[in-house]
Every structure is written in C-alpha cells, then in structure tokens.
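User: quick one, sequence for these tokens?
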C-alpha cells in the first residue's frame, strides 16, 4: 500500500478480549503489522476484570470458543458446561494468546485515551494514557459490549466506613466474607451469580433489589471424558448450528407456537423440557413465538413465577422475586441455586423498587428511613453497554467529528461494523451487532473485517467509508426487528441495558440487532458478494487504483461500488 505518510502499524486494535485476540489473529493472517493496547495486565477483557465469585459463562462451553485454529480445539477442553471465569481466562491466555505468540503485539496496562483520524493522510493516531502516540491505517475498536461499568451513583458512599467492591473490577486477592455482614446491590446476571456463592459464607447477606429478573436454572455440570470426545467430534456441527441460530447458540427451534400446541398438558411438557434442559434452552427450545406473541410470553412468564413460588419458602419473598413484566424484557440471567439462596436464614431481600438507597457511615439507608449496617457492600450495577467504552474515549473521525458527541444524540452504524464519518474504523462487537452469543458473532464480524481489509490492500485503497444510504437501510432494519418483539416498550420501562435504559441520561435506542445472526450475517455477506456496494473507497494518493479489474477514478475521488 503506498501512501504519503507511512503508518507505524497497518492496524491498531483496542482491547485484548475475545474480539481483540480474534482481530490480532485475523490481521496476522493478512500479513499486516498490528499493535494492541489493553488496559488490563493480561488478556481476557470482560473475563479479566469480572473475576467475582461465581463468574462463569451463560453460553455452553462448545460455543464459547475462538474458532480460528483447529489445533486449539484438539488441545483444549473446558471442564464444565458453563466455563468458569478462571477457565475462560486460561483459555484466552495460555491457549489462544501464547499458542500463537500474540502477546508480543499487546501493550498491557495501557489504556487508549484518544483515537484521531487525519483526513490529509488517511491515518489514525492512537494516543495512550501513558502519553505515547502511534499511527495506523485501520483502527479496530474491540472494546467490548460490556466493559464500562456503571459506577455507584451514591453520594453517601464517601462517608461509608466499611469495605466495598464492584463486581467489574474485582480484586485479584481473595476477599474473606466469613463472619461478615454483606450487602449486594444489583440483581442482574452478575448479582445472580454472586449471591449464592456468598450466602453460605457470610454471617448475613442482604440483597437490595430494584427490579426482579426471570432467573433461569443454569444446570451446570462437569464435562466427563466421554462428553469431551463428543464435543470435539461435534465442534464443527455445533458451530455451524450456532451460526444459523438467531442468537448464536447451538440450539434447535422446536417449530412450536403456543397456539399450534394448544393443549395445556402439552404446553407444560414443552416448557418443562426447556426448563429441565437448563439455561437458555428455556427461551430458545420451547415456543418459537416467545419474543413476539403475548399469549406465549404470558404463559412462559407465569411458568417461571410458579417455579419461584415453588422454590422460595417465604411467600412474601417469592412474590418480590417474581417479575410482573413480560419475560425477555430484560436479558434473563442464568442462576445456580439463586432462588434457593433466599431460603437460608441469613439471607434477606430488601425491595427498593419504590425506595431509593444511599450509603451512610455504617451501611445502607433507604429514602423511607430504614438503616442497615454492613461490613462489606458489593455493587453489581451493570454496564454502559455497547457504546460506553468508545464514547468515553476521545474518538474523532473525518473533519474532527466526535464519536462521543454524535452518539450522545443518535447512533448510526452499518450492521455494527462501520460508522459514517469514521473512515477505516471497524467496530468489533460494538453497537448494533446481533444480541446473542458473542464468540459466534465476533467470529463472523472479524472474518468480514478481514475480507474487507484484504480487498483494500489488494486494490491499493487507502480509505473506506460507508454510504449514508446503506446506514439508513440498516437503521430501518434494526428498528423493524426490534419493534417486532413484544418487549420494545417494556425493555425501556424496566431499565434494560440493551436499550441503554439502565444509564441515566443515555439516549434510549436499541443497541443490538434483534433480527438474528443469520440475517445480520447476510447483510455482511452481501457486501463482498456485491463487491462492497455499500461502501465508498478512495485510492491511495498518487495511485491509480484498480479493483478487481475495474479502473478507478482519480485519486481522492470516491471509487464507489468497486
Ligand atoms: P444488569 O443486568 O444491568 O443489572 C444491574 C443491576 O443493578 C440491576 O438489578 C439494576 O436494577 C441494579 N441497579 C443499577 N443501578 C442501581 C441503583 N442506582 N440502585 C439500585 N439498583 C441499581 O448488569 P449485570 O448484572 O452486570 O449484567 C449485565 C449483562 O452482562 C448481562 O445481562 C449479561 O449479558 C452480561 N453478563 C453475563 C454473564 C454471563 O455470561 N455469565 C454474567 C454477568 C453478566 P434495575 O434492574 O432496576 O435497573
């Protein structure tokens, strides 16, 4: 690639989580030089930071992988159905990063502060918190959909004298909960994993719940030597199945709708089967119309409420734990003995749905005047999802356009990969990707990015920009898919993070695509099939660019639809 100014690297990757590692590998395959900056001291991303007790995946081991190298599959076997944080961290580090010598490309403990695009030389300059600056042609923002934690917004926290921790920046050293009075604030997927772990150890555990969740039983188990063989043998088939599943999971739709089944006993049997199978099988292998049909959703919601009532002995506590909104309005957590924890005499649930909390010197107080003393408070308050990490960074595109400012008003992408006015910046697992199992989604996305970069390299194209027409078409598709769900409104009302409703002041817009992985993947596939018809390419200065035999227009003029 010729260009007026030589870049320090062909590409710079932000973040060394699943997306960043997959990106580094892809860039290496293209023979490109790449550097990765990572704020943590090791690879892993979300799995590096979220090392709280009970942290494990909610996706099954056989689809929670990086699928770039067959030799990894042979070498590695997770030991449990839902791998623990420690195992995922090992898998990312030892198996993927060390095996392919990727660490040498990563600067750890190095946060990116700014990423600025220059229109004059088509390069990005990436500046780190340490003050170093490097230039690159392609900026791959692999900052993760759930990487910026919602900080405790409590004014009184400064006066609190006990210890407090955030789930998302959990200390490496073990915390001793024995004999302690502990509070957990937050009952999302994170709180749901922490609570049953601490309950048996703490002297007293008090859970502050604002909105209850529909918690599905995960039903974790140890993978024995026989299943391990089966997983290895079935890897490709499982992966393909997950790529074809709307949410990126190796699951089968049943073909049932609530109306097609009709009979009450049969309906119960279908729901029992999903429930007993564990985890997301309940929502994806029962009724295919749970997302779109009110009756179907009502029946599935009521089924869970009955399960809660059957497990939780105290009827008042069971009632508080039972959501009244439609199932799937919030992302359902996977629990392991979550509801059972409330049967312990040392565990108490405090309803704060109509009563705000704050801290005082000895613990937590409510607006209504109740006071609770604690030695330790744990905050599991969620994340500024999808856009948070990049909006926080000073990212400036063409003509100094600020990503943070633009995204504070409206959010536009092309299929979650490119952003108008931000040439040569590729999002990896950012906003507008399908809601679902991330390893599947990012594999498809990084593969597409690789192909697109290869196309540019081959044809001496210095710059890619997505057309506004393509962005508008994608926005309509995105809205349409979300409006087709029956929780488009209830998600906002119940502070769901996938619409940004959990962060005060954040624009309320759907952050993920609900039309399914295959449809999204077809949008990307259509690009290379149509020779990137939705993109404008610009040749390197002084170069008569050609693409696949088609002569380009003059330098600096768009070479559209090559
Ligand atoms: P979350 O689902 O957003 O839950 C945050 C919790 O904090 C909610 O219960 C929320 O109440 C509460 N909260 C927030 N601000 C509060 C305040 N000011 N006062 C009182 N309560 C407050 O966050 P999360 O649990 O971290 O989970 C986020 C996502 O991360 C999950 O849905 C999942 O996709 C991912 N995750 C995955 C795994 C896994 O794969 N195993 C594990 C953990 C997380 P409201 O509901 O009322 O807002």
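Assistant:
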């Amino acid at each position: 690639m010729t260009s007026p100014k030589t870049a320090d690297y062909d590409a710079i990757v932000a973040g060394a989580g699943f997306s960043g590692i997959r990106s580094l590998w892809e860039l290496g395959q293209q023979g490109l030089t790449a550097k990765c900056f990572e704020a943590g001291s090791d690879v892993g991303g979300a799995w590096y930071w979220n090392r709280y007790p009970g942290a494990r995946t909610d996706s099954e081991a056989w689809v929670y992988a990086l699928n770039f190298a067959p030799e990894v599959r042979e070498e590695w076997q997770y030991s449990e159905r839902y791998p623990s944080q420690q195992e995922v961290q090992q898998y990312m580090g030892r198996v993927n990063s060390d095996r392919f010598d990727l660490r040498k490309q990563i600067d750890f403990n190095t946060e990116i502060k700014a990423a600025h695009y220059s229109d004059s030389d088509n390069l990005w300059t990436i500046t780190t918190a340490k003050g170093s600056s490097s230039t690159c042609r392609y900026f791959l923002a692999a900052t993760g959909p759930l990487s910026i934690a919602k900080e405790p917004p409590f004014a009184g926290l400064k006066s609190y004298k006990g210890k407090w921790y955030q789930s998302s920046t959990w200390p490496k050293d073990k915390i001793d909960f024995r004999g302690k009075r502990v509070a957990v604030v937050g009952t999302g997927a994170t709180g749901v994993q922490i609570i049953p772990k601490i309950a048996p150890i703490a002297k007293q555990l008090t859970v502050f719940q604002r909105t209850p969740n529909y918690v599905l039983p995960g039903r974790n188990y140890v993978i024995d030597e026989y299943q391990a063989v089966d997983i290895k043998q079935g890897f490709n088939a499982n992966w393909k199945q997950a790529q074809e599943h709307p949410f990126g999971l190796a699951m089968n739709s049943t073909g049932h709708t609530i109306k097609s089944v009709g009979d009450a006993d049969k309906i119960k049997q279908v729901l029992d089967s999903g429930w007993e199978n564990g985890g997301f099988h309940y929502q994806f292998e029962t009724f295919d119309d749970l997302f779109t049909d009110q009756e179907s959703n009502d029946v599935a919601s009521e089924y869970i409420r009955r399960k809660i009532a059957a497990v939780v002995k105290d009827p008042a506590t069971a009632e508080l734990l039972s959501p009244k909104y439609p199932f799937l309005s919030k992302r359902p957590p996977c629990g392991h003995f979550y509801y059972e924890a409330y049967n312990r005499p040392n565990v108490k649930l405090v309803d704060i749905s109509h009563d705000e909390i704050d801290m005082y010197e000895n613990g937590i107080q409510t607006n209504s005047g109740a006071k609770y003393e604690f030695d330790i408070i744990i905050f599991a308050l969620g994340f500024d999802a999808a856009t948070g990490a990049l909006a926080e960074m000073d990212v400036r595109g063409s003509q100094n356009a600020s990503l943070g400012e633009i995204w504070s008003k409206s959010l536009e992408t092309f299929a979650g990969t490119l952003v108008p006015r931000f040439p040569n910046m590729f999002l990896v697992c950012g906003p507008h990707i399908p809601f679902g199992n991330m390893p599947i989604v990012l594999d498809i996305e990084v593969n597409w990015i690789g192909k697109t970069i290869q196309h540019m390299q081959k044809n001496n194209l210095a710059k890619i920009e997505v057309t506004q027409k393509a962005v508008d078409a994608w926005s309509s598709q995105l809205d349409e898919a979300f409006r087709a769900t029956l929780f488009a409104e209830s998600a906002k009302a119940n502070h769901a993070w996938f619409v940004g409703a959990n962060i005060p002041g954040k624009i309320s817009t759907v952050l993920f695509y609900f039309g399914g992985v295959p449809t999204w993947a077809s949008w990307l596939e259509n690009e290379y099939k149509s020779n990137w018809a939705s993109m404008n390419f610009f040749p390197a200065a002084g170069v008569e660019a050609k693409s696949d035999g088609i002569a380009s227009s003059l330098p600096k003029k768009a070479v559209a639809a090559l």
